[in-house]
Design goal:
It contains seven helices and seven strands. It is of the alpha/beta class. The structure holds S-adenosylmethionine. InterPro entries: Methyltransf_25, SAM-dependent_MTases_sf.
Length: about 200
């Protein structure tokens, strides 16, 4: 699947597909976002400019903004951004597939977070998206990416599949685009600092 195939599928998707807690209740869905926003706030500098890439209808972006961050919701799906606007009409939003993120946000961000987005893409697409996200963050800024590593990595296939990576694949891409992995206790997703690329 290409990047636009995945976005087209999400544009048509039932909002219940965004997170398993939505199958339980809307309260459970909101609590999951609040808990993850609180976790992210232990790492993100107070009040910083944060892009939630692949924000969906704002499960995490809305509570993160409520914590005082200057949040920009970015998604490739206009349908998702419309639902986000219903929940938080004054949040800044941009349509982006990741590869163009730097140009659509203008001023670079202090951080990009991206949860449950990279997992839905092939390696080739994932590389292009990571490159785009890195370009949207200022040097020394942070990227917190739901970007899972597995001993037996595989491409998920399909818009709701789960792609896993080898640590070697990730390290090579990080060196190429300028990402330094940080050791952060208690964070379920890898955290990277934007640095100069090694080559
Ligand atoms: C599983 S939902 C996750 C939403 C949100 N991050 C969360 O954790 O609640 C995936 C979202 O990523 C968006 N998405 C997937 N691939 C994308 C891409 N290449 N560019 C922009 N948005 C993308 C979809 O439109 C959808 O809103």
């Amino acid at each position: 699947m290409t990047i636009s195939d995945v976005i087209d599928a999400w544009n048509e998707a039932d909002p219940a597909a965004i997170h398993p807690t939505r199958g339980i209740s809307e309260d459970a869905y909101e609590s999951s976002g609040q808990n993850q926003a609180a976790l992210l706030s232990t790492v993100l500098p107070e009040g910083s400019r944060v892009v939630d890439f692949g924000c969906g209808d704002g499960r995490v972006a809305v509570p993160l903004r409520a914590l005082g961050y200057d949040v920009i919701g970015a998604d490739g799906s206009q349908a998702m951004l419309n639902r986000l606007a219903d929940r938080d009409p004054s949040m800044a939003t941009v349509v982006s597939d990741g590869t163009d993120l730097a140009s659509v946000i203008g001023k670079k961000a202090d951080a990009v977070i991206s949860l449950a987005v990279l997992i839905h893409h092939t390696y080739e697409a994932g590389e292009r998206i990571i490159e785009g996200l890195r370009a949207a963050v200022r040097v020394n800024g942070l990227l917190i990416l739901d970007w899972p590593v597995a001993d037996e990595p595989q491409e998920g296939g399909g818009w709701i599949g789960v792609t896993t990576w080898s640590r070697e694949q990730q390290d090579a891409l990080c060196a190429r685009v300028g990402l330094k992995r940080l050791e952060v206790d208690g964070m379920p997703w890898p955290v990277f600092r934007a640095v100069k690329a090694s080559s």
